[in-house]
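User: I'm putting together a small comparison set for a docking exercise, and I want a reference complex before I start. The sequence is below, and the ligand is DP6. Could you produce the 3D structure with the ligand included, as structure tokens?
Assistant: Of course. I'll restate your input first, then give the structure tokens for the complex.
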Amino acid sequence: MSPSPVYEATCTAPVNIAVVKYWGKRDTSLILPTNSSLSVTLSQDHLRSLTSARCITSGGADARDRLWLNGEEEEIKQGGRTERCLSEMRKMRKEFEASNSSLPRIADFPIHIASENNFPTAAGLASSASGLSALIATLSTLYALTPENGVSVSDLSRIARQGSGSACRSMFGGYVAWEMGLKDDGSDSVAVEVAPVEHWPDLHALILVVSDKKKGTPSTAGMQRTVATSALLQHRIKEVVPARMQRITTAIQKRDFDAFAEETMADSNQFHAVCLDTFPPIFYMNDVSRAVIQLVTELNRASVEKGEGVKAAYTYDAGPNAVLYVQEKDVKQVLELVLRYFPQTTESFPDPFNLGAKPASDVPQG
Ligand code: DP6
């Protein structure tokens, strides 16, 4: 008797950090955003999700979809985001099987999924982005729904988006836009590559972990409170973001760090202003976050005065942790300055001088 075949796949996907933030949905079920956004995908070396999926071919009591996150089993809720991603991928696999009689019929098998992050989950470090992106990358490998078989990365991003909005951007490495799209069915709300990592490889992201505690207001709930109550958000989505998307895309194309930094910091500031304009207000930054902003501002002021240009750009997501974008030539100086004013208090993160997180082109990986 020949052994039954094993259908399984493992992929990793990295975190992305937005420089033009996504904040607000016009459709909460399909996850369609109120504005386009743009991010840099980081290297997988330091912040990534690793996900394995296996088809359960044997039947029995275990023959149902199951999910483990960081070793703990999580319920896959009916109609929830994971279930939606699974059923969309299954649907595509079924169509593929229907069009190709030589393919094994695996679409209807239950799936067991195990995923782990190598960084604190839900601490404002975009864990949902890497997690859902890794899930879609893994299922696309398992089901052979790949560019060679006519399924583009943007097609996959449309499904990752339904798991978590920001996840669609982690499907690409380098510099990535999530185009909000105009259609009600979300078919044009996809991630697209703005530039590969090789285009501007000397841009580094320094992640200053101010706190690795779980954040107070989850993004999903926070952004809808903003949509419901903030007048400033309407100004942002209509008047500010469309022009900023164009300017920052040009800055990336020209590798113009000063312009990139200006737009990045302005957008982070406006995102947190919009959170403050929400009722009840949402506070993601703390005193340390604000002190980091002051330090970067002072560093840039002194540097520009000397004719040396901008040294660092800060940005903050839905938590107090700072991400600083810095050019390679300035990494040492900026790190030394940060460590002088904010000495490390924890051993749990490795020596920052050996880190140098970089945008990555090699994502997602099988
Ligand atoms: C502040 O993608 O986590 O990081 O779509 O509800 O899952 P859901 O939200 P999520 O929100 C990310 C918000 C942000 C900004 C960004 O990454 O663009």
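The first helix runs from residue 81 to 99. Helices lie at 81-99, 127-142, 153-160, 219-229, 231-253, 257-276, 287-305, 331-341.
User: Thanks, that's exactly what I needed.
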